[in-house]
Amino acid sequence: MFKLMLLSAFFSVAFGNIYDFKVDALDGGKIDFSKYKGKKIMVVNTASMCGNTPQYAELEKLAKKYKNKLVIIGFPANNFGGQEPGTNAEIKAFCTKEYAVTFPMAAKISVKGADIHPLYQYLLAESKKKQFEPEEVTWNFQKYLLDEKGELVAVFKPRTSPTSPEVIAAIEK
Length: 173
Hints:
Blueprint: H1 2-14, E1 22-24, E2 30-32, E3 40-46, H2 55-65, E4 70-76, H3 88-99, H4 118-129, E5 143-146, E6 152-156, H5 165-172
Parallel strand pairs: 3-4
Antiparallel strand pairs: 1-2, 3-5, 5-6
Helix pairs in contact: 1-4
């Protein structure tokens, strides 16, 4: 418990809020979260060879429908069952060809374990502070929703459809 409190305190100090993050993009550029102030942000860990992979299509629908109030950012990760083995270039080609993904995609990262990306350390610390379930990333396509002020307001389990009534209600709130 002390370790968890220490981790939470560290990331609250190191990263004051979500807008402090700049992450590598799948195409080699940068994704600067500060440019999304005033919009809701949905962060999703993704994988190309998962039973949940068809959620890319639903995420793309959301991104287009709510483009003025929501940005979706995908984070490819190979933490679960080796379901994202590709390189950044292979992942980009897959997402473009198979699902016509246009929302921002980050470079491949780790969402758990010793090499967890700082953004996910931050999201997990915020999730624990707010006592959201699940407390850890449990599988591919877990969704973190932040409001227009950058506050974490919901965590959706991997099998929760991005277009489910509960997700839509949280976006429209």
